[in-house]
Each structure stands twice: as C-alpha cells, then as structure tokens.
C-alpha cells in the first residue's frame, strides 16, 4: 500500500495531532491490521470546535468565487490521486478496486458540482406592501457543522457533506467511521493542499463514536449536525441536538423495494436488480432489499436472476474480475447469515448453489417464496442476498412496497406510461428509480422520508442545507 496518502492522526486546525491511545484499522479481506491510528481526546474535540469557529469567522467573509476556486482545486487533486485513493479505500473497506475507482470519481463530482453551486446561493428582492420599505432576502452560511459518516462509501459520504458546507461558507468537523478513517484523512490532506483555511475541515479519529458525538451535539458553537447511518443512531443524535436547536440532516436506514410489473422488459429489470443489489456487496442504503414481481412473470424473471447471480465472482477487491468483496467485519456477516437462516426456516427457497466461504465473504444468494413477515423483508440485509416475493396486482404491489417504516429509495420496472405515473406518485419514498437501478447523482437531491431521514444531499437543495435565510427590511422614507 502506498504511504503517500497514509496518515494516522487527527487533523485539527490544519495540523496532525496525536491523541491518547490507538485503535487498529482492519483490512476486511483478510482481517489483518493495516495500521493503527491515534484516538482523539475530549480536549482535542474542543480544540477542533474552537478552530472551526475561527475558520467560520474567516470563511463567512470570503467571496463565493474564492470558495469555488478552492473547491475546484480540491476536485483536481482528488482526481489526480484517484488511483491511490481507490487503493486505500479497497484496503480499508474491501470493495473491488473498480468500484473504488468509481466512488472516487463519484465523490469528486460532488466537489465539482458544489464549486459551481457556490456561485449560485441567490437571494431575492420582494415587492413591499409599503412604499417606504425595500425588502430583500440574503443567504448566509449557517456556521460550524459537525458530521458523522459511515464506512460503506468512505469518500462519497464525506465529499457530499463537506463540499456544500464549504461552498456555503461553513467550517466542518468530521468524525468518520472507525472502520474507514484513512480515506477521510487523505481527503482532508488534499483539501488543505487545495487551500482550505486552517480549521475549515477537521477530522477526528475515534472508535468511541458515542462519546465524540455527544460532545459535538452538546456544543453551542456547532450549529448544524449531519449524519449518515442507522435510524436507531439517528434518533439518538436528533434527541441530543434538540437542547441546542441545531439544524440537522439525517440520511438513515432504508428497505428499498424494486417492483417488476408484467409489462417490464425482464432483461433490463434483471440487469438493474443485479447492479443495484450487489454493488458494494449489498452494503448500500439504497440497494434493492426486496424484489416484488408480478406473479405472471415471476418464474421468467427468477430464471434470469438466477443465471446472473450464479455468474458473480467473490474475492479480494484487488483480484481481477471480482464483482463482490468482503463484508466490512465478522459481525456483518453473522447478521446476514442469521437473516438467511430465519427466512429458510420460515419457508423461503434458495434458488442458486452457493458455497460457504471463509472470513468476511458471503456468496451471493437468491431466495424466493419470501413474504413480508420474515425478518429479511423487514430489516436492511446489508449483504449480497437477493429476495423475491410476488404480487397479484398494482394495488397489492404498492401496499407491499410502502408497508415498512422506511422511505429512502424505491425502484420499479414498467413500460406502461400511465402505470409509471401512478406508481411513481404512490410510492412513499424520497427517491424513485424508474427502469433504472442506479440513481445516485450529484445534481439530484438524495434523501428519504418517514424514518429514513431529514434533508437532502446533492442538487441545489444540498447547498440550502448549509445556508440560513435572512430577511432585510430597509426604510427609505
């Protein structure tokens, strides 16, 4: 592994700071120790808050053009180091190198998008009802932002938070996942090289996320908290942010359905299902969790899916031709296997042959005869297991799709234009893919409804999450 972008200490106020004690970063491909990193102290968290506060005072007086140019340089540096960043990601996260390369580009695209959006935080002039008044609205950065990001997309989950925050003139304190801190540190280094002011982007390393999160939530200085992770943790963070009335954005759990109607192109549907379900070994919040198919075409679709699932290759992310890498840690594998066992005990059928694999690897599985009462239908699988259930008509399909407390992403395949409008409007989800299994895009708002969260990332909406509106009333009389 190249050491050019390998750092092992927290990045605070433009400096690498050693904490107290260490924790290991594990390679999920073989459970070996990649390196040990220094654990941040409570005093250093306060130091980061102070540095971010000073940086915000400076940032809010910079021009949008300055911030745009800094972001453009950050984008250029990330892309110039695409290979090194991808290799680092595969080492600490496990995804195939080709996927890691794609994520670096995807994450960089958020930086590029918000470099452009930095120039577009428009206000407005409002016609007054009083001839002596002139009314305007301006937008200003909300202040110091704290964020916690997950391990499954260790670059993209960071850039789509930090880039819009900086574009809005906000400083950022990041607590990345303890499983994938190395990608975060590399991004912070490149941001500093690009011209981020000292304290504008701080990275805190800790395997004690609860303690760091509580400290950031309690701070009066931190004015916004952004989190990507489980619904259970999101609830806790929202409660902790309540006393200081922080602005929050929460991208939480999902349980994405994919509906296949009788009019669908079944080959395209099968390809879309495979692309969505097995990306990152099924460890994505928007991947297909439940396939619901019209009973009239269920047998034909299942045959196409079985053929495609059987062709998928599992292995180390650096091996050529690998489609699926390891799960992130042993407990993740245990949960997936428990869900499969529970489903099989309740009558689900395993369609394909799948070997039992050592380490953190799980062979891709296709299960049919699944029903809504099974745990595997109610919980996020977060692994390479595809489940298929059937429906008899459109109303039943929509009811099954909506019968969960989550509402992040949903998908459906149909060639009936009237049905496309009906179903698209009826699905209770923040994002809907229609004849498409991969929907994430920097120019579009990413986020969910119900217990899948609050706020949006991406699009022009993502910039607004970091801006406050201020009403100005001028008396000219």
UniProtKB/TrEMBL annotation:
Annotated keywords: Oxidoreductase
Coiled-coil zones: none
Enzyme Commission numbers on file: 1.2.1.-
Source organism (scientific name): Pseudoalteromonas qingdaonensis
UniProt similarity note: Belongs to the aldehyde dehydrogenase family.
GO molecular function: oxidoreductase activity
Pfam family, one: Aldedh
Active site positions: 251
Name used for this protein in its record: NAD-dependent succinate-semialdehyde dehydrogenase
The Aldehyde dehydrogenase domain, residue ranges: 16-470
Xref: PROSITE patterns: ALDEHYDE_DEHYDR_CYS (PS00070), ALDEHYDE_DEHYDR_GLU (PS00687)
InterPro entries, alphabetized: Ald_DH/histidinol_DH (IPR016161), Ald_DH_C (IPR016163), Ald_DH_CS_CYS (IPR016160), Ald_DH_CS_GLU (IPR029510), Ald_DH_N (IPR016162), Aldehyde_DH_dom (IPR015590), Aldehyde_DH_Superfamily (IPR050740)
Claim: Oxidoreductase is one of the keywords in the record: yes
First-level EC class: oxidoreductase
PANTHER family to which the protein is assigned, alphabetical: SUCCINATE-SEMIALDEHYDE DEHYDROGENASE, MITOCHONDRIAL (PTHR43353)
